[in-house]
Amino acid sequence: MAISRRAFVGSLAWGGAVVLSGTAISARGREAMTGDWWRDEAAPQLTPVQGIRLDSNENPNGPAPAALDAIRSAFSEAARYPRSPASQLTSAVARLHGVQEQNIVAGAGSGEILRMAVYGFTSPTRPLVQGLPTFEDPGRYAELIGTPVRAIPVDRQLRLDLNGMAAQVEGAGLVFFCNPNNPTATVHPAKAVADFIARVNKISPTTIVLVDEAYHHFVEDPGYQTAIPLAMENPRVIVCRTFSKIYGMAGLRIGYAIGQAEPMKALRRHRLGNSVNVLGAAAAIASLPLTAHIEREKQRNHDVREFTRTAFASWGYQAGPSEANFVMVDIRRDAAEFQKACRASGVLVGRVFPPLTTHARISIGTETEMRQSIEVFRKVLGVTS
């Protein structure tokens, strides 16, 4: 029986105990906390954040109704270890992409995939090459195991500098290629991706290129294509996907890697046992065939994102083209102070991404959230007209 997402959240209490909080199921958790959260096991437990949450690139609508129905149906398996659900998820993803199960590795969000890749392919003598700024997790994992990081600043258009990255790949263990890139929302077309990978293969034949396609479903650039065909042709390429973004499951932690059997085997050596949870696997499997739902979410994101970009442009602030569910705005002032002021007014925006310290990353919420947030941004920026 289909139910509304709001009604589902209200039905989660059973026998006097709350099984999952509304915050978790609506996928509005923190994407990557500022500070050294990943170092400190004694850090206090997170509590639900108050305010409009535009800080972690989540889908404000949460999972599809069919995914929520699947979660309810999976409650009876919550007492069991998730061996079967993980296997079922791997099979479903393999069928979706027309590959074999040996070509898929599932994990706890794309975060676990990134950790597996850093641990599997880098070392103190095999550096990590990435952009600056880009998603921080690979660099953090590299630091934990003593891997040097070669970080190449983005270009003037806030795109990953592929020439600069290629110049640093010799002897590297892994290249992290976030496409579209977080936090800049820029994307490279298929030809540029293929040419870059060919250059890396020539310069450093043993280096793995991991293409992170977390924001794949939001891309509108006609020149863009997924790198999955490249990964299936080239044993030095891996593609990473997540259910945290357009599928609205950031709190459920489901992601996967796809590639040839050899690099997938290397990833599995570093996979945590039972890392794919029962409820997340059920929701992900139910979501994979929902193409019409995904298209609606993409269109919704487009409409609200362009409303947001237009507002900033009308005030004279540049929000570059975005191929994701967030915008990067040059606010021409200290981004940390902007973040603090917005939070004081009930709107959370993204953390600061050096060296772009005058840029604010703003996730796209619901239309209502963005209209309310625009008024806060107007006030904080001192816009009078």
CATH architecture verdict of the domain at 74-287: 3-Layer(aba) Sandwich
CATH fold description of the domain at 74-287: Aspartate Aminotransferase, domain 2
Strand content: 5-15%
Mean pLDDT: 89
CATH class placement of the domain at 74-287? Alpha Beta
Number of helices: 14
How many angstroms does the end-to-end distance come to?
Answer: 49 Å
Rg calculated over all Cα atoms: 20 Å
Major β-sheet strand ordering: 4-10-9-8-7-5-6
- Taken in chain order, the helices and strands follow as HEEHEHHEHEHEHEHEHEEHHHEEHEEH
Using the alpha-carbon principal axes, give the shape: globular
Largest sheet entry: 7 strands, mixed
Oligomeric state of shown chains: single chain
Defining traits:
385 residues, alpha/beta, Aspartate Aminotransferase, domain 2, three-stranded antiparallel β-sheet, 14 helices, 38% helix, 15% strand, globular
Quick recap:
The chain is of the alpha/beta class. About 40% of the residues lie in helices and about 15% in strands.
